[in-house]
Amino acid sequence: MKKIYINILVCFSVIAFFTSCEEELDLQNPTALSVENLLKTDNGFQLLSNGVLDAYQKVPANEFLLIELRSDNSRANSENGNFPAIAAYNVDPNNGDVATFYSNNMHTIKHANTIIVNRFLAPENQQYTVGEAYFMRALCHFNLVRAYQNVPYIDKVLDVTKDDALDYPQLPEAEVYEKIINDFRTSVAYLDGRELNRYRPSQGAALCMAAKAYLSQPNPNYQEAELLLASVVENHDAFGFDLIYTERTDGLTDPEHFYNLVLDYGHVLGNSFSGSLGDDGVPDGSWSNEPGLERNKEVIFSMAYDLVSSDNYVTSDSGLDDQIETDSESHSFAMTLQGPSNGVNIATTDLLDVMTPELQPVRFYASLNPNEYTAYLSDPTIDVFNTRFPTDGEIGDNDWVVLRYADVLLLYAEAILAGGESTTDARAIAAFNQVRARAGLEDVVNLTKQVLLDERRVEFLYENQRLYDLIRFGEADKVLTEFSRENSLFYTNEKKYLPFPQREIDNLPNFYDQNDGY
Questions:
Q1: Which of 220, 165, 273, 67 is CA-nearest to residue 508?
Q2: What is the pLDDT of residues 486-513, one digit of tens each?
Q3: What are the φ/ψ torsions at residue 214 (nearest 5 degrees)?
Q4: Beta partners for 389?
Q5: How many secondary structure helices (H) and strands (E) does the chain include?
Q6: Helix orientation angle between 2-20 and 203-216, rounded to the nearest 10 degrees
Q7: CA 257 to CA 262: how far, in whole Å?
Q8: How far apart are CA 44 and CA 55, in angstroms?
Q9: Which residues contact residue 449 at a Cβ distance below 8 angstroms, ignoring those fewer than 6 apart?
Q10: The SusD-like N-terminal domain covers which part of the protein (predicted)?
C-alpha cells in the first residue's frame, strides 16, 4: 500500500515539474534589475525566499478578527471600536482590517513572484526556494479566495508605472482554486528531497495543502484529495509527522491520563503548563509559551515569532539565524493573554455549550480559562477568554501554526466521506479516532458528517478554521443564520465572504466588482 502511494507522489511531482517549465524567463520588468544584482550573490535566492516568509509574518496579525470572530466561536464586547461590527457580520468595505489582510497577502505574493519569474537562474542547491515561492503564492491566494471569494490571481511582479493590474481581473472562485492547486502541485516537484524544516514549506505540507484546496473548491474533488492525503497519512513517519500523544499506562486513573493528554494538547502549540493535577482531578496552574516545544512532530508548517522588545529582531527559535527579521510583531495580539483588553476573543455561549470540562476533558483545559468558566456558570454575563496563546504582551512569541497533522487526519476522513452523510470506512474511522483518542474521547464506529464538523470545531478552536469549515461542509448559512437570530446579529448568505476592499476598487475604477451584500 505504501509503495503505491509513494509512486503516486512521484508521478504527481514529475507532472507538476514539467508543467512549471513552460514559460521562459522574462527580465524585462525594470523592478527585476535590482533583483538581478542580488541574484549574483551565492545565496541570493535564499535571501529572497526568506523575504517571502518575512512578508507572510504580517498576514496572521488580523486574520482572527476577520475569520474566527465571524464564526459562532468568538464574539466581541460592545465597547471596542469596529470589532463588534465585524462579529455582527456588519463589515464595511472601508474597514482597515479588511484592506490590510488583503494587501498583506498580496505583498507576500509579490515577493514570491520575484523568485518565480527568475526561477531559471536558481542554482541547483537553491531550487527548493522556487518550491517555497510557489507554495507561498498558493497559500496567500488560498487565504484570499476563502475570505473574499472572487479574487485576481497574480502570477508576476506588477509594474506600478504601467497598467499591469488591468491584466488581472477578479476570477470566478473555481478558476482561482485551479491555479492554487497547480501552484501547490508545482511546489511539490521543487521541494522533492528537501530536508524538513517546520518553519519552511515542505513537500509534505504542499501535498496536504493541495488536498485541502481540492476539498475547499466549489466542486470538491474528493478522489484527488484522498490520494494526496493517503500518501502522507500512510507514510507519516517518513514525512516526519505524527500526533503528540501519550499512551495510557496501567494504573493511571482517568484524571491522571487526561492530565497527560492536556499537556500533550498544549504542547502542540508550543505551550508548557506550570502546575499539577489537583485533588479534584482538575489541572491547577497556568500556561506559558515554551519555544523549545514549538518545533514538534505534529506541526507541519508554522510561522515563527519571538518575544523581544527591539524594533528589529531575529527569530532565534526558528533556526533561521539572522535570515528573517520582523518588526516586533506577533500573529494576533487579540488572541493572546492580554487580548481581553480588546475584548474580542470571548467565547460565545454557543461554544460554551459544547466546550465544557465534561464534554472536552482535554481540550477545555488547554483552550479556555477555567476560573472564568466557573464564574460564567453562576453568572452568564461573565466573559470567558481563550488561553491557547498565552503570550504576555503585544510582541508575541507564540508561533502561528498554519497546518498540523491532526488537520491532515481529519481532512483524510473528510475526503473518504466524500460529501456523504456517514461512512464506516475503516481508514476514515482510524484517522478520526486518532484525534479523538488524544482528546480523551471514546472511539466512534460510524463517522457522520455532523460528528466530523463538530470534532473540527473543538480540535481547532481559535485556529481560524471554523468559518471555513462551515463553508466547506455547506453548513454556513444554516448554522450562522441560526446563530445570528439567537444573538441579534446581521448574517445573510452573502456575508460568508468579506467585502472586496474599497481601496482596491478605488484604485482601478470600474474594473473590480464589490461582493454581493455590501
A1: 165
A2: 999 999 999 999 999 999 999 999 999 9
A3: -60, -40
A4: 336
A5: 20, 10
A6: 80
A7: 9
A8: 17
A9: 417, 420, 421, 422, 473
A10: 47-215
Cell of 159: 509594474
Separation between Cα atoms, residue 284 and residue 365, nearest integer Å: 10
Cβ atoms of 77 and 84 closer than 8 Å: yes
- What pLDDT score was predicted for residue 392? 66
* Alpha-carbon separation of residue 198 from 72, 105, 222, 425, 466 (angstroms): 30, 20, 27, 31, 24
Angle CA 62–65–66, to nearest 5: 95
Are the CB atoms for 460 and 479 separated by under 8 Å?
no
List, for residues 230-266, the tens digit of each pLDDT value: 999 999 999 999 999 999 999 999 999 999 999 999 9
80 residue type, one letter: N
DSSP state of 7: H
What is the DSSP code (8-state) at residue 296? -
Nearest to 281 by CA among 154, 370, 181: 370
Q: How far apart are CA 361 and CA 363, in angstroms?
A: 6
Q: Is the four-CA dihedral 308, 309, 315, 316 of positive or negative sign?
A: negative
Residue 324 buriedness (CB in 10 A; 0-12 / 13-18 / 19+)? buried
Q: What is the pTM of this model?
A: 0.91
Residue 10 has pLDDT above 80, yes or no: no
